[in-house]
Amino acid sequence: MSSNGIAKQARPDPSSFVIFGVTGDLTHRLVIPALYNLAEANLLPDHFCIAGVVRKQMSPDALRDSLMQGLRTYAARPVRDDVAQQLLGCLTCIEADPSDPASFDRMRQQLERAEENRATAGNRLFYLATPPNAFAPIARELGRAGLLREDNGYWRRLVIEKPFGTDLASAKALNDELLKVADEHQLYRIDHYLGKETVQNILVLRFANGMFEPIWNRNHIDHIQITVDEKLAVGHRGSFYDATGALRDMVPNHLFQLLSLVAMEPPARFDAHTVRTCKAEVLAAIQTQSEAEALENSVRGQYRAGHAGDQTIADYRKTEKVAPDSTTETYAALKLTIDNWRWADVPFYLRTGKALGAKRTEVAIKFKEAPFAMFRDTPVDRLSQNYLVIGIEPVEGITLQFNTKVPGPSIAIDGVEMKFRYKDYFHAAPSTGYETLIYDCMIGDNILFQRADSVEAGWQAVQPFLDAWKKSGDKGLTFYKAGSDGPDASEALLARDGRNWRKPC
User: Which helix (H) or strand (E) element contains residue 402?
Assistant: First the structure.
């Protein structure tokens, strides 16, 4: 492993990196800082250029200055001037707009000139850091202009940010549009959660440790909890969020990526096709619920005014560009089941929300209780719950919670934890989480990226909830105070099954 915490060492092929939405927030906050970190780790091609696509004419110097300012503001580590200058020194600025087809023909010509100057050998990676409504129009024009055509040994790849669709129908429509102009192997549907070390480590934890895989099934596991809590409120994203909500924003992508890694069958080989097939199969096995079942097995909440730490948070409905009578959920909790041999009768509880008391992302595997008979004639009246907890944010690590005897002459039992923390064992430089994913795009490794069938299977699973919530309007919408743990109804969702959400120790 390198000093920068990036395990792969091979240099990618020469290529041009074309960014649509180059002036936007995503590019400034994450994409350029990730490219910088790769450059510092010597993991960019020797022959490389960045092409920033703008809708309105902009000078290369003005764009370069803007990206440099963003890099210095959002970099995850101290910025070395020599590396930054070298990275942005290969920047070219191209004007193109999907509403003007001729501009894409001009872009092709400009790209070819830049590629000749930088000796990038014709390989191109197109990164769509744009609003979702621009994905299909841009892809259509790239296809029409021949910019995605792979010939003469060149590769052409298209990277698409989330959200990938807003429901099952729109996800299918977008997949259909993309597959008209590109083959599946050219498409990289990116989810930054999969760039996190702990998420990638789920496969290693399961399949490289003989102590875990034999008990990773319905015979030993009682249930699984997946939590993505956010402390931040909606903020300035009111317009986007009110049209989206917590379910669409987080569940079909982030939470289902975690679920698929935790629940997938062991792949026969560790290659992209096999791993992605196993992930798609487990998502397809999620039981499709009726609308009545979806209402019974879900909670949707919306935050009211409160405090999260030192921050005062107003009612969600008072957020700028949010409807005053909005029924959009800022919190969602679901109970799902997977219809296969491994997970029969094992519930999966998923929850995510905004404006909560703490930021936390984790997967908690709750094991079944041990037989209690041997302690019948002792003072022991309860056992602590056994959890294997995979922590992703804010602390990356793995915790095992188990029972042990309290020192003393009598039999008393208490729950304790064994903790592994990445930072205690590995000294990796801070990163954005995008480095691994962008690097994989460049080398053509799509193992961490969703395939079309996986995307559609995820939307298939959440569609009943979307439909049921839309029909019920404000009926069933619950409220919670900002800075709390979420709505009380979320606790009741588990309590009726004799279970409860895990509380951090």
Answer: strand 397-405
List the domains of the chain with CATH numbers: 15-161 (3.40.50.720), 194-495 (3.30.360.10)
Q: Is 254 labeled as catalytic in the residue annotation?
A: yes
- Contact 170/133 with Cβ under 8 angstroms? no
* pLDDT > 80? residue 390: yes
Q: Going by C-beta distance under 8 Å and a sequence separation of 6 or more, which residues neighbour residue 26?
A: 129, 161
Average pLDDT value over all residues in the chain: 91
The sign of the dihedral angle between the CA atoms of 366, 362, 1, 263 is positive
Note the helical H segments in 267-395. Answer: 272-284, 291-296
CA dist 110 and 96 (Å) reads 11
Predicted pLDDT of residue 308: 82
Cα separation values, 409 from 321, 346, 412, 431, Å = 64, 39, 9, 50
Q: Half-sphere exposure of 39 toward its Cβ, with a 13 Å CA cutoff?
A: 25
Q: Which of 254, 273, 307, 427 is catalytic?
A: 254
User: Residue 373, class by beta-carbon neighbours within 10 Å (0-12 exposed, 13-18 middle, 19+ buried)?
Assistant: exposed
Token pair in block for residue 459? 């939307």
Which of 305, 240, 247 lies closest to 461 in space, CA to CA?
A: 247
What is the rounded distance in angstroms from the CA atom of residue 282 to the CA atom of residue 277? Answer: 9
For residues 46 and 365, give the distance between their C-alpha atoms in angstroms, rounded to a whole number.
Answer: 45
